[in-house]
From TrEMBL:
GO terms for cellular component: cytosol. This is AsnC family transcriptional regulator. Residues 16-87 form the HTH asnC-type domain. GO terms for molecular function: sequence-specific DNA binding. SMART domains: HTH_ASNC. PANTHER family: HTH-TYPE TRANSCRIPTIONAL REGULATOR LRPC (PTHR30154:SF53), LEUCINE-RESPONSIVE REGULATORY PROTEIN (PTHR30154). The keyword Transport does not apply. The keyword DNA-binding applies.
């Protein structure tokens, strides 16, 4: 774990020890890694790995294990970022209800600035995106404006979360 400039441990993930972080890194890389392989990698017995993973799940650090699907193989070739805005606060509840179970929406974020929400959406074609905007986003009473960015290519896209204090956080760097 990184040490803060004051010489004290940084509180960033301070409740995770080196073995927990190593297990999490390995599971992020491949959620199907066996407990025997995990144990070998961190120097623990399978039963100890099982206990640690269960505790990480109980604490909510591990929310679930998922298969990473290929958008290209599924022909979900269009990735769009959609900003959504309104002025009436009463619009938020029906908007969130509408987007909650929509499978085309990969992410929905409440944001600062000129917009209320940002959506990350995958569809097959621009025609599908147009229908999605009309039915899902603009179909919510009170939605006043949207701005849609179509992603041409992605240099990086990951679900892996950082498990160490980044170097840029070190004040001495």
């Amino acid at each position: 774990m990184s040490i803060a400039a004051s010489g004290h441990r940084n509180h960033w993930m301070s409740d995770l020890d080196d073995i927990d972080r190593k297990l999490l890194a390995l599971l992020q890389e491949n959620g199907r890694t066996s407990y025997a392989e995990l144990g070998k990698a961190v120097g623990l017995a399978v039963s100890s790995v099982n206990d640690r993973v269960r505790k990480l799940q109980d604490r909510g650090v591990i929310e679930g294990v998922y298969a990473a699907l290929s958008a290209e193989a599924l022909r979900l070739d269009l990735l769009a970022i959609i900003f959504v805005g309104w002025t009436d606060p009463a619009t938020e509840a029906p908007f969130l209800a509408r987007v909650a179970d929509e499978p085309s929406i990969l992410e929905c974020h409440h944001v600062t600035g000129a917009w209320n929400y940002l959506l990350k959406v995958r569809t097959h074609t621009t025609r599908d995106l147009e229908a999605f905007l009309a039915a899902i986003v603009k179909g919510v009473p009170g939605v006043q404006r949207t701005e849609t960015l179509i992603v041409l290519s992605s240099a990086k896209e990951t679900f892996h979360l950082p498990l160490e204090l980044p170097a840029w956080r070190n004040p001495r760097a």
